[in-house]
Amino acid sequence: MSGFVWNLISFVVAIGLLVTVHEFGHFWVARKNNVLVKRFSIGFGKAIYRWRDKQGTEFVIAMIPLGGYVRMLDERVDPVLPQFKDLSFNSKTVGQRMAIIAAGPIANFLFAILLLWGMYLIGVPNIKPVIGQVTAESIAAKAGVPSNAQITAINGEPAEDWRAISLLLVEQVGSTAVDITVQQLEGSDQSYQLDLTDWVFDPDKQSVFGSLGLEPLRPEVLNEISQIQPGSAAEAAGLQFGDKLVSVDGKAVADWNSVVTLVQNNPEKPLLFGIERAGQSMDILVTPQSRETADGFHQGYLGVSPKVLPWPEHLLFTQQYGPVQAALVGVEKTWQLVRLSFSMIGKFIFGDISVKHLSGPISIAQGAGSSADIGLIAFISFLALISVNLGVINLLPLPILDGGHLMYLVLELIRGKPVSEKAQELGFRIGALLLLTLMGIALLNDISRL
Question: For residue range 210-251, what is the model confidence (pLDDT) as tens digits?
């Protein structure tokens, strides 16, 4: 199956599931408050499949899987017969209407907790966050952070794995300093304060810990070819599986990174590779192909992968808990994602993060496909993240979103009467314009990344 088709299927499954959860939140609370739901639609546009339940709700699966909606009986939209007036949304108290509107985002948060609960019941394979090396002259190096030490906390908040560390560090974007606590091999803890004044972090090009100069301890990579891409420069030159790369243009290569650097710096330029094959030494002339990077530069490309030794056993562990503890961890992780999402929105507003980092449906589809390709645990984790993001975005005070409806209801509660329909209509237009602008920027960002 091609990458595009796999990404598309994964995206449709993910978005369809999360939208269903969100809209079911509205639907369930509306029914509990005796509101007639006329339609429950997953997707927009022409209906692919539809059915109707005993209470008169039409359920629809539509052609465009980019959202959904719940349409309730409302006197402001439809003519309502007197005997059905008590079933209309607008006839309910402000508190009831707020509960119905808030139920969508809350359903997404609860679903994230459920997903993470299941994930930690199954068990999450993980890697201890041990620093392999600290990049010279980096922010971490200037703070004196040692290599071969395990990170245990960020700003005093415990972190057991690299994913948790990434989330905690991303939250510090825009801050002037961050404290990192590490555990030395002999077992003592030491905190280091990193000066973030000149911190530059581009999530499209590097990891957050890599931008600080922290390189994770990884399995040893050998100067031995384990895979050759069909049609590549390596195949054309006659390199083979199992070849050990000893030198390039007569100079010994210390490690695989040295080989990568030499190849990337010499696109379409012949390089004489000294190799060892089945105990015999030989030289092979290879001309790396040239390919353009996202920045418009040209790099050499060989088309080979190295042999990588297995992860050391002492770095591997599994996060697995019983039902109660897994639920507590699910709540904790969901709260962390909610907090991070609101924090990132604030950083966008105040300019700490550029709008060029906004992601749209293409990036989400790629994320869905890649996480599904890794396995069930990765896909569950991705679903939890997107579910939280969907809930948070819908709580933004834009009139076209749930948060905007809640804003109008709060004003109604304060004023003692609804906001005028004219003011609401104006707000909806402004909200729609802002939302379409953000979606347009995100889509352009997606296309530029491609």
Answer: 889 888 888 888 888 888 888 888 888 888 888 898 888 888
Does 137 participate in catalysis according to the annotation?
A: no
Under 8 Å between Cβ of 140 and 134:
yes
In this structure, are residues 398 and 431 in contact, taking their beta carbons and an 8 Å threshold?
A: yes
pLDDT tens digits along 7-25 = 778 878 888 889 899 999 9
Helix (H) or strand (E) holding 298: strand 298-301
Cβ atoms of 287 and 262 within 8 Å: the answer is no
Axis-axis angle for helices 323-349, 376-394 (nearest 10): 50
User: Model pTM greater than 0.85?
Assistant: no
In degrees and rounded to multiples of 5, residue 79 shows phi and psi of: -70, 130
Q: Which residues pair with 150 in a beta bridge?
A: 130, 183
Segments in 89-161 forming alpha helices (H): 94-122, 139-143
Place of tokens 């948790």: 164
Q: How many residues in the chain?
A: 450
Largest Cα separation within the chain, whole Å, is 94
Q: Which of 23, 75, 332, 421 is catalytic?
A: 23
